[in-house]
Model the fold of this input.
Amino acid sequence: MRKLLTKSGVVFDYINSGLVWLLAALAAFCWFSICYEVLLRYFLNRPTIWALSIVEKILAIITFLGAAWLLKKGGHVKIDVLELFLPKRWQMVLEGITSVLSALVCFVLTWYGAQVVIEQFQTGSHDPTVLALPQGPFYMVIPIGFFLLFIQYLRNAYGCLVDWRSLQEGSSDNGNHANYKEEDMR
Done:
């Protein structure tokens, strides 16, 4: 079981890393698109009809598909006022519980997001903009992003459990559960 978790963790990390590179390229495309739009609009008085619609879609894609990677890196906002006053083992318990609860919320959002995507494809909805882009493909990033978050929260919870067990056994090496990586499984 441990080997399976290790291999699936490595695959998951490769997926997240690949997505981050893709999202970085999309962010660069957004930057160039906005610069292009500004140049055309204010200097040549010939604005584009596509820049704003495409950039807002890309920003949603970046937000949803980058969230799991950001969680892995410890970049999500965290209120730790109570946690600072707790002993290390209770900090891990609290973080493990919040990770499990967050995973459940992400699973529910994945489920309902998938239902919305199916509905969008069935109805053939299009954006109410000049481009009239189909909404289904863009809405797909919502359940995919929440599913990736679901997996990462489960990994964080597992990391907390491993660290908590090592503290219970009296080990001083408790890893780094907040930034769970595939090396922690080896």
Q: What stands out?
A: The CA atoms of residues 66 and 160 lie 22 Å apart. The chain is about 70% helix and 0% strand.
